[in-house]
């Protein structure tokens, strides 16, 4: 045995440097949704808080939407694509088993052969990606990581299923993670995350691809299904506990928090979580779902972008973010707004 | 052991706090859905708050059988509140 391995021994502070989003151009109203389901505008609004959502056109692909969001995040961060050395894409609707969406995005974005991979963590995907990215930057595995959450859930939505047709939507959100200069610039708190495979059936793709393609009735898309009431209970109460743990882990009290940005699953879930967390009135709560619908992995960065645009969020603010969804999986952190 | 009336009035407080329905309207014969206009999501909130208040467990499969306030009160009574 000879020689010692040269590895970094010092951790660097990691933070979010920029945020960007892409919202598909087509607005889909509740009136359009109820052409296919036995429901009403009023029922959809009271059960979910959704007034309208965006569905992507054929041209607004997973890759195209991601590139648009990533470009805005780079501009916000003030860095060039060549400085990105890892791209993490969280999605469940890139309908290729391989290659990953991340590789195509890394190439078309203009990175110089950045490491690139997709993660599958459903609606928790952005927070999963952010956790990976912050650890990479801390350890020196990457200098700048592009984290993207992107979905075309409309492709996997059964437009005739009255329990899901009004919820799912499309979009992309991105964040650039990089190093801060000193500990005062720590910008991503410890992640509180986990999974609960006992409830695989709560939110899932109804059937495997082979079953959807090769059956006596002819090929069909394998739609998503959801058990609304159990999911509501789990998300509202168990996830409020996880969110509280993320606050505690970061050493932040509710009074010190500026923003609460949960995955935009359902306005009613957001309301119960905020009540459980006993958030003071000074905390701004993300309500992007009203006009965006549930965009799974994209919902948190999209909501953050909206809050920055409309002045609810400003640079330096502390935001509690939590993603939760199919698996079940979840992840929560406290982050500083760039 | 809490009396039937104690459980009813405790439940009425919960319903009022979550949905704004006047506590006095929450009587045993009232249907949560038809009379009190409580939707399935608010019902989950009521159930979770009731579990906490009365120290009982109301399984998910049971919730759909709790059509009236009386159904819920007697379930909580039997569950040992």
Automatic annotation (TrEMBL), chain A:
Q: Which SUPFAM superfamilies match?
A: Thiolase-like
Catalytic residues, per the record, are 123, 263, 294
**Where's the Beta-ketoacyl-[acyl-carrier-protein] synthase III N-terminal domain?**
117-197
One GO cellular component term of this record is: cytoplasm
Share an example GO biological-process annotation for this protein: fatty acid biosynthetic process
A GO molecular-function descriptor: 3-oxoacyl-[acyl-carrier-protein] synthase activity
Q: Return the broad EC class.
A: transferase
Beta-ketoacyl-[acyl-carrier-protein] synthase III C-terminal domain residues? 247-337
Q: Which UniProt keywords apply?
A: Acyltransferase, Cytoplasm, Fatty acid biosynthesis, Fatty acid metabolism, Lipid biosynthesis, Lipid metabolism, Multifunctional enzyme, Transferase
* Calcium found in the keyword field: no
Q: Which family does it belong to?
A: Belongs to the thiolase-like superfamily. FabH family.
Q: What is known of its domains?
A: The last Arg residue of the ACP-binding site is essential for the weak association between ACP/AcpP and FabH.
Query: What's the protein here called?
Result: Beta-ketoacyl-[acyl-carrier-protein] synthase III
The species this protein was found in: Phytoactinopolyspora alkaliphila
Automatic annotation (TrEMBL), chain B:
Could you say which residues form the signal peptide? none
Q: How is it modified after translation?
A: 4'-phosphopantetheine is transferred from CoA to a specific serine of apo-ACP by AcpS. This modification is essential for activity because fatty acids are bound in thioester linkage to the sulfhydryl of the prosthetic group.
GO biological process terms, semicolon-separated: lipid A biosynthetic process
Please indicate which superkingdom the organism of origin belongs to: Bacteria
Q: Keywords for this entry?
A: Cytoplasm, Fatty acid biosynthesis, Fatty acid metabolism, Lipid biosynthesis, Lipid metabolism, Phosphopantetheine, Phosphoprotein
Specify the EAL domain's residue ranges.
1-81
Domain annotation Carrier: ranges: 2-80
Record-listed O-(pantetheine 4'-phosphoryl)serine modification sites: 40
Q: Which GO terms describe its cellular component?
A: cytosol; membrane
Main subcellular localisation:
cytoplasm
Under PROSITE patterns, the record lists: CARRIER, EAL
The protein, known as? Acyl carrier protein
């Amino acid at each position: 045995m000879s020689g010692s391995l040269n590895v970094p021994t010092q951790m660097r502070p990691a933070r979010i440097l920029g945020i960007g989003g892409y919202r598909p151009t087509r607005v889909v109203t509740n009136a359009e949704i109820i052409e296919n389901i036995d429901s009403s505008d009023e029922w959809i609004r009271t059960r979910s808080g959704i007034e309208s959502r965006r569905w992507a056109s054929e041209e607004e692909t997973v890759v195209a939407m991601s590139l648009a969001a990533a470009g805005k995040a780079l501009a916000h961060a003030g860095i060039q694509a060549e400085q990105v050395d890892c791209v993490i894409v969280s999605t469940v609707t890139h309908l290729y088993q391989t290659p990953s969406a991340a590789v195509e995005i890394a190439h078309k974005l203009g990175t110089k052969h950045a490491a690139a991979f997709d993660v599958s963590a459903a609606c928790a995907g952005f927070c999963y990606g952010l956790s990976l990215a912050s650890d990479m930057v801390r350890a020196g595995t990457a200098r700048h990581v592009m984290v993207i959450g992107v979905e075309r859930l409309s492709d996997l939505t059964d437009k005739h299923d009255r329990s899901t047709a009004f919820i799912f939507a499309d979009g992309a959100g991105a964040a650039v993670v990089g190093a801060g200069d000193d500990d005062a610039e720590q910008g991503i708190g410890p992640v509180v995350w986990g999974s609960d495979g006992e409830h695989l059936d709560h939110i899932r793709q109804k059937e495997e691809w082979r079953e959807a393609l090769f059956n006596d009735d002819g090929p069909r898309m394998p739609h998503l299904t959801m058990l609304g009431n159990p999911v509501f209970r789990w998300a509202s109460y168990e996830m409020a506990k996880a969110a509280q743990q993320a606050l505690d882990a970061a050493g932040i009290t509710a009074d010190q928090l500026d923003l609460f940005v949960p995955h935009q699953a359902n306005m009613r879930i957001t309301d119960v979580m905020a009540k459980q967390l006993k958030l003071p009135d000074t905390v701004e709560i993300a309500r992007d779902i009203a006009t965006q619908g549930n965009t799974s992995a994209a919902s948190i960065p999209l909501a953050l972008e909206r809050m920055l645009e409309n002045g609810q969020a400003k640079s330096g603010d502390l935001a509690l973010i939590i993603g939760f969804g199919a698996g079940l999986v979840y992840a929560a952190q406290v982050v500083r707004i760039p | 052991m809490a009396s039937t009336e104690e459980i009813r009035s405790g439940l009425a407080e919960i319903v009022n706090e979550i949905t704004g329905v006047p506590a006095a309207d929450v009587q045993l014969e009232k249907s949560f859905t038809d009379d009190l206009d409580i939707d399935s999501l608010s019902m989950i909130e009521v159930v979770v708050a009731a579990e906490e208040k009365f120290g009982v467990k109301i399984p998910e499969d049971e919730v759909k059988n709790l059509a009236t306030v009386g159904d819920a009160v007697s379930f909580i009574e039997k569950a040992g509140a």
